[in-house]
Amino acid sequence: MSSATATPPRAPLAPLATERETHTGRRIVKHTIAYLVLIVFALIYIYPFLIEIATSFKSGADATANPLSLVPSKWTTEESFDKLGDVDFSRWFTNSVVVAIFVTLGRLFFDSLAGYALARLHFVGRRALGGAIIAVMAVPGVVLLIPKYLVLVQLHMFDTYFGMIVPLMADAAGVFIMRQFFISIPVEVEEAARIDGAGTFRTFWSVVLPMARPAVITLTILSFQGSWNEFSYFLVARGSPQLNTLTTGVASLLSGQLGAGNQFPLKLAAALLMTIPTAVVFFVFQRYFIRGASAGSVKG
Amino acid sequence: MATTSSTSTKPPAGPVKRRGGIRGREGMAGWLFVTPVVVILGLFLLLPIIVAIWVSISDWGGKGSPLGANFVGADNYEALLTKPGLSQQNLATSLRNNLYYVILVVPIQTVLALVLASILNGRRLKGKGFFRTAFYFPSVTSSVAIVTVFLFMFTGTGVVNHILGWFGIHGPNWFNDPRGVLRLILSALHIIDQDSPPGWLVNNHFLGMSWYDWLSGPSVAMCALIILAVWTTGGTFMLMFLAALQDVPDDVLEAARVDGATRWQTFRSVTLPALRPTLFLVITLGLIGTWQVFDQIYLTGGGGPAKTTLTPAFLSYQAAFSDFKWGQGAAISFILFAIIIALTIIQRLVMRERKKLPRRRRFGTVPPVGTGSETVAAATAGGSR
Fold first, then answer.
1. Which chain A residues have a beta carbon less than 8 Å from that of B326?
2. Predicted confidence band at A296 (pLDDT cuts at 50, 70, 90)?
3. In a domain, A276, yes or no
4. Separation between Cα atoms, residue A236 and residue B311, nearest integer Å
5. Fewer CB under 10 Å: which end of chain A, C or N?
6. Whole-angstrom distance, CA of residue A177 vs CA of residue B255
7. Which of B10, B257, B383 has the CB atom closest to A298's CB atom?
């Protein structure tokens, strides 16, 4: 409201011609400074990714000698992509895909079910449960690494796909996002469905969930990104190399478990390939990312 | 599925009892709907906490069921907090490192995010979307990928030192340099002599570490990690500020301008007060997040060089998984937990205070405090992804 009335009447404020001139002069200077600052920071933010790409096409010697250059002195993938086969990269990639798909599907289904129940259904203990879920969100993830490992071992789920996927299939933040959205949907729609004889699940599944599309997309993206980038949990949930995901796999490259030399072209090529899926999802669904930004967690 | 069929066959039972019936079935359905989440969170979040409490007060050595271990009371905590020894030294070192990390990362990233957001909020700026994307992108990429790039950029002959070389600066060997920065500065200013540090600093101890060591400052290696953290998280916080800035009513800004306020005055007296809830949120989220730093530490060599990047989160992992001191590892987790929970509680108390306070702002429209996203962000602060 206010913005509609306030945007145009900027000009009438400068009463004198001379004053207006100095104003525009200053404005140009300020604008230039603003752009300069932004461009410098944009370089600081983008250049590392460009280096990542360029180095993936360099030889190790070239990467060490000319780390800054974005054009390899000789284009080669011999020391980068060609070597990915030696480190079982495709296996890591497959594992990451499998984990991300199951975790995302699980979170979508379970989080929205629970979010709907907490938003709409009347059942004993609803308030307490809602409070508990908010409380659970405050538990910092890293302090639970040891106990999560202990529980996985006790349940005979350590070092299995099952143990890597199932514990991630529900998350409190996702439940909360869905709940908030369902609260905002008018109740009348559901009541109409119920009067038409639809059961609770049916109402949820065919009437309410389709209306929650924006929230569902946000949750899908956050879940995919979260499970694709998950590192510390997979560090303690598995031990065998066959279960490496991209994160733990590339981490094993960094700790230098293979070969001589610094292997930077290989490491950066692996890092690049692992960034591409998130990048694609990010650029396609950017506005949902931005919506979920404050809902997602904070990287340390 | 079961609910679908059972409920959808019921309706013929009639309009008479419909209301009570729906509520009754709703109770069942409600619990059915939340069961998966309750089971998963219960088994993999609540149960671990309980097991960890037990392990932290037992002598469990990693073999067999923890339930068979002996109760040792506060032994593990004493070894870490009061008993002189390696465990206490390690904890003190990790707390010192993380403290410097927090003290530097939180203010720098907050100011950077605020500055970038304020510039991006300019009305006539072109290419807003591009810049916003550029600054935010690192926040969504994997920490592993980012650390890989940073390891490459911060080698002795790497990108950063190349650029420093343009200005005639001979850059350090970042990730391998354990020298404390504060000490380097103080000795460069001839305030202390590194070869013979003042006795009162060396002879006084806290948590088994001399004051001199407490005051070393972050190591050069830690500084590289600080830069990494600011670079990565700045974008997220910038978005939060940007959203808040867009809620600052234009007419109020206009009014300030009509009254003859300069840009800086407008920013200080109008924009900044309106941003206070967000500013507070960003700072506490930053505090909570920086105390949990783990991935970067693991990936850059597990606390090296000379333990100067060791943090409590990593120390607890190391104690358990490398040194098999499970009790101590769990105890460190709880000490860290206490620090983070204390920060979270302070944050929630202050947020609640803010809601209760009468709206003191001079200008009418106030951005609603505690909107959905803010609450989620506040609650997710723990970051249990």
1. 146
2. very low
3. yes
4. 18
5. N
6. 37
7. B383
